[in-house]
Amino acid sequence: MLIDKYDIRYIEAGCDEAGRGCLAGPVFAAAVILPEGFFHPLLDDSKKMSLKSRELLRPYIEENAVSWGIGMASEHEIDQINILNASILAMHRALDNLNLKPDIILVDGNRFKPYQHIQYECIIKGDGKFMSIAAASVLAKTWRDEHMLALHQKYPHYGWDRNKGYPTPEHKELIHKQGLSLHHRLSFSSNIQIKIQFSD
Q1: What is the C-alpha to C-alpha distance for residues 155 and 15, in angstroms, rounded to an integer?
Q2: Interatomic CA distance for residues 8 and 111, integer angstroms
Q3: What is the CATH number of the domain that holds 11?
Q4: Residue 175 falls inside a structural domain
Q5: Nearest 10 degrees: CA dihedral of 44, 17, 55, 168?
Q6: CB-based contacts of 135: which residues, under 8 Å, 6+ apart?
Q7: How far apart are CA 31 and CA 90, in angstroms?
Q8: Is residue 142 one of the residues assigned to a domain?
Q9: Number of domains in the chain
Q10: Closest C-alpha to 34, from 70, 69, 68, 71
Q11: Model's pTM, two decimal places?
């Protein structure tokens, strides 16, 4: 039985998201259940880690976690329900993709919504305090980055291989020149003060 194999006294799933502050692309989330005593010296809040460290850790986490799941909410869903609700929706979808039901969900940040009557706790800066949340932050970030690199192949003129859709000065300037793509979040357009026009 999986629980006995990993000697888990209660099953804890860490949850985190990536891409909440972006102007383009979906928001991704991950849920991770780690085995008792899991440790890796590189594991930390993904925002504090180098690209190389995140890329090294992703397969290690995926191979050694008891269970992990990825969820996402599209740009269009973000526009419809706002980024907070879309982030929570992505986390719920990540939890849906676990093959083991957790006893408690640890969420990075201060907002969440009940999921299947499972106890949860919101922890500010939790990705620097709990291994399971840190592991989720790495998976959410690397999966989203991979998605944005794929979009970059279709829309190379936005520099998504460099900015991943975040509101960098370069990205904003390229939007001013090119207009918005179908993958930009229209609800964020007021943040960049541009006329909405779509670019192929």
Answers
A1: 30
A2: 27
A3: 3.30.420.10
A4: no
A5: -100
A6: 14, 30, 32, 34, 38, 43, 57, 61, 65, 68
A7: 10
A8: yes
A9: 1
A10: 68
A11: 0.89
> Alpha-carbon distance 164 to 183, whole Å?
12
Could you state, in chain order, the average pLDDT of each consecutive group of 10 residues for the chain (200 residues)? 49 96 97 92 80 93 97 97 97 97 96 96 92 96 97 95 94 91 85 48
* Predicted local distance difference test score (pLDDT) of residue 39: 85
| First and final C-alpha spacing in the chain | 51
Is position 162 within any domain? no
pLDDT at 133: 96
Task: Give the C-alpha separation, 22 to 13, whole Å.
Answer: 25
Q: Which amino acid is residue 57, in one-letter code?
A: L
- Domain holding 150, by residue range, is 2-154
Spatial CB neighbours of 88, under 8 Å, sequence gap ≥ 6: 111, 112, 113
Cβ-contact 165, 146 below 8 angstroms: no
Q: Report the amino acid identity of residue 19.
A: G
The residues, any chain, with a CB within 8 Å of residue 53's CB and separated by 6 or more, are 42
Residue 189 is assigned to a structural domain of this protein: no
Alpha carbon dihedral 73, 75, 79, 84, in 10-degree steps, equals 40
Q: Which amino acid is at 83?
A: I
177/15 Cα distance (integer angstroms) = 37
